[in-house]
Structure formats: C-alpha cells, structure tokens
Amino acid sequence: MARLAVNAGHSVVVSNSRGPETLAELVAELGPNARAGTAEEAGRAGEIVVVSVPFGVHTKVPVGPLAGKIVIDTNNYYHERDGRFPDIDEGRNTDSGALADHLGTARVVKAFNTIYYVDLGEHGLPAGDPARRALPIAGDDPDAKRVVAELLDEFGFDTVDAGALAEGWRFQRDKPAYGPRFTASELREALTKA
Hints:
It is a single chain. This protein has 194 residues and is of the alpha/beta class. The protein has one domain (47-192): Rossmann fold, CATH 3.40.50.720. It contains 9 helices and 7 strands, in the order H-E-H-E-H-E-E-H-H-H-E-H-E-H-E-H. It has helices at 2-7, 24-30, 39-45, 79-82, 86-89, 95-103, 117-122, 142-155, 184-192, and strands spanning 12-14, 34-36, 48-51, 70-73, 107-110, 134-139, 158-161. The strands form 2 sheets. The protein has a 5-stranded mixed beta sheet with strand order 3-4-5-6-7, with helices on both faces. A two-stranded parallel sheet has the order 1-2. The longest helix is centred in the C-terminal third of the chain and has 14 residues, at 142-155. The chain is globular, with a radius of gyration of 16 Å. Keywords: Oxidoreductase.
C-alpha cells in the first residue's frame, strides 16, 4: 500500500513493531516521499492511517494519534493466529468493530482485507476498464468512506460500499466476497450471498 500511495503522489510514514531502523531498505526503495517512524509517529503524521496488524494485537494500536482520523482497517480475524474473541465468534461484533471500539473517535473504514498483498500491486486498472477489480469497504462515516473510495480509485480499483462498519462481516474470512477477483457487479452479488 505504501508503494501504491507513493506512486499516486502521496507522502507516507511506515512503521512496524520492530522499529523504524528495520524499514530503512523499504524507505530507500520507496524514495523521498517515504520515511519510517514509530507507530505513534506514523499515526500523528497521517491524514489517512492504515492499520495492518494481526487482529490479536489490535489493542496495541496507539489511540491518541488516531483521534478523529480516517483509519483504514485491513485486518482479518484468524482465531488460529489471534486467539478466540467470543464477541466476534458469536456475532456480537466484527474485527473492525473491535478496532473501532478500541480507537474511540477514529473514523474506521474496513478495506483492502479481501485482496492478497501481491495482487494489490498487480491488479490495478484504469477507471472504466470492464475488467477492473472492485474491493469492498464498510464504515459508519460517509466522508471517510468517500476518501477511502477515492484512494482505491487512485490505486486502480473500483469500490463497492457494503454499508455500515457492522456490515464488514460480509467480506470477512470464509465469506464469498473474501479473496476472489471480482468486478463491481460480481462483488455486489458475492456480498449478498454472505
């Protein structure tokens, strides 16, 4: 995602759990519009912040720097990796809902969780191409969803709005919309089959 953002003319701050120094090679590859920072620094710097961590550690995402910001949640809940979360297992919450609960005032939009990271860099096509891949989003803030849809378009993807953040379950793991390459009309159909 950082590469796509830089290629679209955005500046990025990347972070990971191992520290900014471990990202030196990536930052050098991305060029002058990229730098590494701590999670706190990346959160403070970003107008749009992407959270891509194993769901089991979502409560370690810093809250303060993300207050009021658009946060793209790319996460997927895998109980085998993350441990069991009864609220999710029993359908009382979703993985993105749990992140939103943790972050408080951040405007969380679930997106980019249905596409393999390699495909993200290879499947983008110009707007209007009949084979253009569509990706689903869900969120409670219409303006935040609009901004994320614009970003998806810049990256070469159509957007299908699945509705409120709670509807993100429709494109979670093991659902028809999770994984395959779909056009917008095909994705809408897959979402209805969830």
